[in-house]
Amino acid sequence: MSRTTTKHDSAPREALRLLIADDNPDDVDLCVRDLRKSGIAFQAGTVSTREEFARKLREQPVDIVLSDYRMKGWAGMDALAIVKEVCPDVPLILLTGTLGDDLAVECIKNGVTDYVLKDQLARLPMAIRRAQDKRSLREAETRALAALRESEEHYRTLVQNAPEAIVVLDVERGKFIDCNDNALRLFRVAREELIHFGPAEVSSPC
Question: Is the pLDDT of residue 130 over 50?
Fold first, then answer.
């Protein structure tokens, strides 16, 4: 069975959407209670089985997953595998009673964003904010790369359709590194040849 816990009856639109995977209701209540104390605005759906977890991820948007490390019949790393398949950009924070250093490092290497010991839940709000920051940074980088690709495509379209012969020169090497089709027609060479040339090789003799 799943249930939904909210910070208040009418959560604001900007409330953080959490999905908590844990088969211990008492642990879930403690987690939610600590988050309420932190002042973080959130909506929290809870699940206890692998099937519920996968269904929730597919049916509703989630900002951050909080998962117990050990549950009956499945584990936090199973939850991570489902997250990677369904919504790989969503951070997952492990909640655990104990987790040795070696295992913690292994979990982080496998893609876990962070982990919080259940007897140190006061750390959870900080871990959540840090996970938000990391996700925001990744999204900003993705947008920047998309904008760069769009800019490069726009530049290439302008250059390629320009009526003039255009070449791009690497000043340090003294060699061409790009050109449009009009430049190839003007110099009567293939693109593969032109990028090995410099201005001297294509200049008309005086």
Answer: yes
In 3D space, the residue among 93, 92, 97, 91 whose CA is nearest the CA of residue 120 turns out to be 97
- Locate 172 and state its tokens: 């340090």
- Could you identify the residue written with the tokens 């809870």? 46
Residue with the bigger pLDDT between 80 and 150: it is 80
What is the C-alpha separation between 41 and 125, in angstroms, rounded? 11
Q: Under a CB-based contact definition with an 8 Å cutoff, are residues 18 and 47 in contact?
A: no
Whole-model pTM over 0.90: no
Radius of gyration of the chain (CA): 27
What's the pLDDT band for 6 if we cut at 50, 70, 90? Answer: very low
Question: Could you give the dihedral angle defined by the CA atoms of residues 34, 35, 36 and 37, in that order, rounded to the nearest 10 degrees?
Answer: 50
